[in-house]
Amino acid sequence: MVVFFPHVNRQEIPAVRFVAAWKVWFERYNPKGSWREAAMPRCNRATGLQAQLDGDRCFSVDVLCRFLVTPPYRNTMHATSPFMAANQRALDRVDRVLNPATGMQVQGARPTYEAIGAWDELGEAERVALERDVRALLETDVEVDDNGEAIVQAEVEGPATAGADVPAEHTCPQLFAAQTGDRRVDIVQKLVAWIHEEPFQAHYRQRPVGRPIVGWDSRLRGYFWPDPQTGYKEVHQQMVPIQNGLSRLARKIEAGQRWTVDEEQQLIDLAHQLFRWGGVPQNQVTKRADGRIGNFPSGQLPALPLQEIAEKQIKADGLTEDQVKKAVDRWLRPEGWETKVQPGRERGIDIEAHRGGQRWIIEAKGSGSRPQMRVNYFLAVLGTILHRMDDPRARYSIALPDMPQFRRLWEGLPGLARARTTLSAIFVDQEGRVQHVTV
Question: Fewer Cβ in 10 A, N or C end of the chain?
Fold first, then answer.
């Protein structure tokens, strides 16, 4: 599942990244609200990002979107009706929600059960990494001036802030005037000595953090990014895998060896991790079939093996969503149904089948790896299929792995609800056998 930005040139992001930003926005701008249940005002306005921040509209879907898109589109309005229409799987419309900036009731949005279910499906480490990336994005691009007003760094103009006084003997002309020994070594030695001796005052949002410190060891102990709660030890843990990956690739170059296709993609992935850590995420960069590496529209990208990774993480007794879809597709076709199946988590109806004048809409989910995840999946697929019910002549079903928990959840659904919606369930066992359970 992705979140699509119709006012940006074909840009989309994983829905779980949007949910991570949603969670961080609530923690920062509405800590008393429940990010899973509460709505956020849309507050879309045809003004620049700075004007939105000046208008106390940080807590809004529009500002959240502006931070998630690439910088050239941050002064574009995003939380529009076309945006909501394009992201019905990820966001529900809310007619009335309090706008903290005005105290008035305005239109808003909240994540769907399906989007939150995708977030819950992630491992703890993945969720922490996504939230960290969003916080880094905020810390990089927004500062606060002496009056507490937000400043968008990309829009600040004027002379650079003067740095600390540099001893005369350590200025660039003096450093490059060295004539004895290895000039480069001498320059580095002088720089190292100067940094070691010079007092350093850490700042966060243009305000001092702690007292001035002296020495390399003190600088390391006092280092943090993107906020004072994330120190050198935590950053080191984040950077070691990136450093190790880059070192492996560098050693192949030093040995005169060529990278494989997989190693080229590893380099791109490592670069993305590094940019996200620094709070400056880039567009999706990949290698195309013709060998070119760059930013290409999603329609030209080769599919990454994300589904294969997900399948390896699922227990042996489980089924992926695609396996459920394939089994239902194989079951329908011999009965004369013509089917259209959406692969992976592409937008649209999972399975749409036609036979004569009949139409059958089916939404599917995989097994998940934990009981709570399966509850979320069940709620998500119910919400999705109910949202699809716009054709009174069509049949509507949900397709799930044949597991005791899913059976209990289905049986626990009130019979009146099933009868009035004419909703049915399709269960797929481990061998691909299908059972259709009607009202």
Answer: C
Residue 108, φ and ψ in degrees, nearest 5: -145, -165
> Distance (Å, rounded) from C-alpha 24 to C-alpha 32?
13
Query: Beta-carbon neighbour count of residue 260 at 10 Å?
Result: 10
**Mean pLDDT value across residues 200-211:** 77
The model's confidence at residue 385, banded by pLDDT at 50, 70 and 90, is very high
- CA distances in angstroms from 7 to 76, 83, 303, 370, 371, listed in the order given: 8, 8, 24, 37, 39
Neighbouring C-beta atoms of residue 166, cutoff 10 Å: 12
Q: Where are the beta strands (DSSP E) in 72-139?
A: 91-99, 104-111
Q: Cα–Cα distance between 207 and 421 in angstroms, integer? A: 58
Alpha-carbon span 334 to 365, nearest angstrom: 23
Q: What is the pTM of this model?
A: 0.44
Q: What are the distances in angstroms from CA 401 to CA 183, 345, 413? A: 69, 17, 17
Q: Which of 340, 372, 376 is nearest to 355 (CA)?
A: 340
Rg over CA atoms, the chain? 27
Place of tokens 């949900």: 398
- Please check the confidence at residue 302 and state whether its pLDDT lies above 70: no
Query: CA 20, CA 234: separation in Å to the nearest integer?
Result: 19
pLDDT (tens digit, 9 = 90+) per residue, 61-94? Answer: 998 888 888 777 888 888 888 889 888 888 998 8
One DSSP character per residue, 16-38 reads HHHHHHHHHHHHHH-TTS-TTT-
| String of DSSP letters for 124-180 | HHHHHHHHHHHHHHHHHHEEE-TTS-EEEGGG--SSPPP-----GGGSHHHHHT--S
> Is residue 435 classed exposed, middle or buried when 0-12, 13-18 and 19+ CB atoms within 10 A define those classes?
exposed
> Under 8 Å CB-to-CB from 161, ≥6 apart: which residues?
none
Share of the chain above pLDDT 70, in %: 79
